[in-house]
Amino acid sequence: MKKIISTLTILLAVCSLSACISVSESNMESGKQIAIMSQQAIATCGQGNVDKVTTNSFSCKSQVAK
Asked: Is residue 41 within 8 Å of 56, Cβ to Cβ?
């Protein structure tokens, strides 16, 4: 069940990060790279703590101590 939820979370992140979907091969490859980086970002930053994901990098939200 956790794997299904994780997969759905990644797909949701990918969909929310892509402004336009095209059928060109380069955009499909970019989409695959975004999905890979999104999965890595969630694993590194934690769910809900990912700030930005690109095809070759990601950043976490800064944690400000209160």
From this structure: no
Looking at residue 5, its pLDDT comes to 78
Query: DSSP secondary-structure letter at 60?
Result: E
How far is CA 34 from each of CA 4, 43, 64, 65, rounded to the nearest angstrom?
19, 14, 27, 30
Q: pLDDT tens for residues 25-59?
A: 677 788 889 999 999 999 999 988 999 999 899 99
pTM check: above 0.70: no
In a domain, 46, yes or no: yes
Name the domain count of the chain: 1
Distance CA 11, CA 33 (A): 12
What does each C-alpha distance from 3 to 9, 10, 44, 56 come to in angstroms?
10, 11, 17, 24
